[in-house]
Amino acid sequence: MQKETIMKQLEKQARYAQRSLSRDLLYQTYGQACMARQLEAITKDEFMRINHMTVYFMNTHARELEEGR
User: Fold this and answer.
1) Nearest Cα to Cα of residue 55 among 3, 14, 1, 10
2) CA 38 to mean position of chain CA atoms
3) Is the CB of residue 18 less than 8 Å from the CB of residue 49?
């Protein structure tokens, strides 16, 4: 039950960071996912989903993130 709660929170934060076009929020969410993974609070697959929502998003939306500054 706890793992689902953490994952849902991370997904919520990642979606908010994407909508905000905030590189800082995307990095923060990624960092939180790294910590959750190290503590085994989320699975590798869940971590990869957050990685895609943050790092991949930053790499594929670089221009929008620059404009959003």
Assistant:
1) 14
2) 15
3) no
* This prediction's pTM: 0.88
State the CB neighbour count (10 A cutoff) for residue 27. 14
Q: From CA 32, how far away is CA 38, in angstroms rounded? A: 10
User: Both ends of the chain: CA-CA distance in Å?
Assistant: 37
Q: Where are the alpha helices (DSSP H) in 1-69?
A: 2-20, 23-38, 44-51, 57-60, 62-67
**Gap between the Cα atoms of 29 and 52, Å rounded:** 11
**Tens digit of each residue's pLDDT (9 = 90 or more) over 36-62:** 999 999 999 999 999 999 999 999 999
Tokens read off for 8: 């849902």
Neighbours of 2 (CB within 10 A): 7
